[in-house]
């Protein structure tokens, strides 16, 4: 990457203005909001962007907390993808020992307060650079709700919100600094509700038709199906309703499934096969059933060329430097969780099937609670078995999911330990590191259009120019909530 004045301009602007974005992130951290209820968080970002000259469009995809902020004109059009929803039950004080602020309250256990604010910072830094240097191009920030529900971007994609983008940039708080070349599976979340006939289970069981029997037979059938699907498939469920009392034949019962696969076409096939299992269970028990599609997102594709550009930006910027106080804070959190930092490093080596040079680099951090070094993409051949609605974005526009160190090494995702560091300087440093990486990569894309040509060429090879098909049916609408007090 060209280490010219342009890169230094955006880095310096972000250094000079970082307090704006750390305060934005902290304000969202102090007021965590769940999926589709991010009224304060979304308006905090949109109001700032509007004051900086961006035009704002709300209610994208029928979602009250989804917005697009746009500045500039003409090509290229780059999207900066932000999020801001929190997780339930993860309220946590700003300290390295577990103690909720509000019992069972929400908290930013995935660091989305950092994700949104850092991406806003990057978008505005690029806007300032375009304006200062009299460059043409369009900057868009996407305020995306409900990533934790795996659907916010799908509803936005369904109305074409991403269709004219040339490339997209985003990041996610993590335990190390690395771009992504790997993938992740798509998911469909579906309720299967069975209807039978109630009867006295002791006195006249022959008159009953058990909906619970149908649920259990369906689950048995799906468990046998596991032997006959591809390795990347995951099928898991909970029984959400099983009847009222043992002496009453259950008239209604329900099971909730998450079905995952790496390829959209194969995920569709898996859903169809599971539906046939449900049909068989209903036939065996003389019951009926209906399905309710809850949520869904597509498999994640990563653009390798864009990932390499991000790593080159990381090399230019350098590692994150953590203070001893931050290291001690992270170590205290690590000590509260089973396992050790060394276990985390071993997991990374095994998971990524890391080559010897990466093993040696990771070994340096075996006993460190924070990893500030920048790593090249480690996951080129990995298909993660979790899911994210960034997958739907990646089916429409080239993207590489950047990760930066905002969390201690040995702490699992969606935990109180991540909430703690999301609200203080460890998270702030990881957030601003990501903002700089995205901004440096973006100014290079605006400056040299041959990068976008290569990115698009790779993207077309990945997708085969197949049109994007939203995984959520047209008749499924996003939930609607009102701000508290309205």
Overview of the molecule:
The chain has 486 residues and is α/β, with parallel strands linked by helices. It has 2 domains: 5-184 and 299-463, 3-Layer(aba) Sandwich (Aminopeptidase), CATH 3.40.630; 186-297, Alpha-Beta Plaits. Helix content is 41%, strand content 17%. The chain contains 14 helices and 12 strands. It has helices spanning 5-30, 39-51, 112-132, 152-158, 211-225, 264-285, 304-317, 324-335, 341-352, 356-363, 390-394, 416-422, 425-447, 450-463; strands at 55-58, 67-73, 77-83, 137-144, 167-174, 183-184, 186-195, 234-241, 252-261, 288-297, 383-384, 401-405. The protein has a 6-stranded mixed beta sheet with strand order 1-2-4-3-5-12, with helices on both faces. Strands 8-9-7-10 form a 4-stranded antiparallel beta sheet. Helix 3 links the parallel strand 3 and strand 4. Helix 9 runs antiparallel to helix 10. The radius of gyration is 24 Å and the shape is globular. The N and C termini lie far apart (50 Å). The mean pLDDT is 93.
Mean pLDDT over all positions: 93
- The fold-level CATH name of the largest domain is Aminopeptidase
CATH-defined architecture of the largest domain: 3-Layer(aba) Sandwich
Derived structural class = alpha/beta
Number of separate structural domains: 2
Radius of gyration: 24 Å
CATH class of the largest domain: Alpha Beta
Taken as a percent bin, the fraction of beta residues is 15-25%
Q: What's the total number of strands?
A: 12
| Shape label | globular
What is the share of helical residues?
A: 40-55%
Strand order of the largest sheet: 1-2-4-3-5-12
Low-confidence stretches: none
Distance between the termini: 50 Å
What would you give as the CATH superfamily of the largest domain? Zn peptidases
Q: Count of helical segments?
A: 14
- The secondary-structure element order is HHEEEHEHEEEHEEHEHHHHEHEHHH
Largest sheet: 6 strands, mixed
């Amino acid at each position: 990457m060209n280490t010219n004045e342009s890169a230094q301009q955006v880095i310096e602007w972000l250094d000079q203005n970082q307090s704006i974005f750390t305060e934005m992130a902290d304000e969202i951290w102090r007021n965590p909001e769940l999926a589709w209820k991010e009224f304060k968080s979304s308006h905090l970002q949109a109001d700032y962007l509007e004051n900086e000259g961006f035009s704002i469009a709300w209610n994208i995809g029928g979602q009250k907390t989804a917005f697009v902020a746009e500045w500039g004109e003409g090509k290229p059009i780059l999207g900066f993808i932000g999020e801001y929803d929190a997780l339930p039950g993860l309220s946590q004080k700003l300290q390295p020992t577990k103690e909720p602020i509000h019992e069972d309250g929400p908290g930013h256990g995935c660091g989305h307060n950092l994700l949104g604010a850092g991406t806003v910072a990057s978008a505005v830094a690029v806007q300032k650079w375009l304006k200062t240097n009299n460059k043409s191009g369009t900057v868009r920030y996407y305020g995306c709700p409900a990533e934790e529900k795996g659907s916010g971007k799908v509803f936005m994609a369904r109305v074409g919100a991403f269709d004219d983008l040339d490339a997209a940039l985003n990041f996610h708080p993590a335990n190390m600094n690395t771009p992504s070349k790997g993938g992740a599976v798509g998911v469909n979340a579906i309720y299967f509700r069975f209807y039978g006939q109630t009867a006295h289970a002791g006195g006249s069981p022959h008159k009953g038709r058990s909906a619970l029997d149908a649920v259990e037979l369906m689950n048995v059938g799906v468990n046998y199906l596991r032997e006959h699907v591809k390795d990347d498939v995951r099928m898991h469920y909970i029984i959400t309703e099983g009847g009222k009392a043992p002496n009453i034949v259950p008239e209604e019962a329900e099971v909730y499934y998450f079905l995952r696969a790496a390829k959209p076409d194969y995920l569709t096939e898996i859903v169809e096969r599971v539906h046939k299992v449900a049909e068989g269970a209903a036939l065996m028990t003389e019951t009926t059933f209906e399905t309710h599609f809850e949520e869904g997102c597509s498999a994640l594709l990563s653009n390798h060329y864009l990932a390499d550009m991000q790593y080159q930006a990381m090399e230019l910027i350098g590692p994150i430097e953590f203070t001893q106080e931050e290291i001690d804070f992270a170590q205290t959190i690590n000590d509260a969780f089973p396992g050790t930092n060394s276990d985390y490093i071993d997991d990374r080596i095994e998971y990524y099937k890391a080559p010897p040079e990466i093993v040696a680099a990771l070994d340096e951090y075996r006993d460190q609670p924070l990893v500030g070094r920048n790593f090249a993409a480690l996951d080129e051949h990995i298909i993660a078995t979790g899911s994210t609605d960034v997958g739907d974005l990646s089916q429409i526009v080239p993207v590489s999911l950047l990760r930066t160190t905002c969390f201690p090494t040995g702490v699992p995702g969606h935990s109180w330990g991540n909430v703690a560091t999301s609200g203080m300087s460890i998270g702030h440093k990881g957030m601003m590191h990501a903002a700089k990486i995205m901004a440096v990569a973006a100014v290079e894309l605006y400056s040299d259009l041959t990068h976008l040509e290569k990115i698009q060429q790779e993207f077309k090879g990945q997708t085969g120019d197949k049109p994007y098909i939203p995984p959520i049916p047209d008749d499924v609408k996003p939930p609607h909530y009102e701000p508290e007090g309205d």
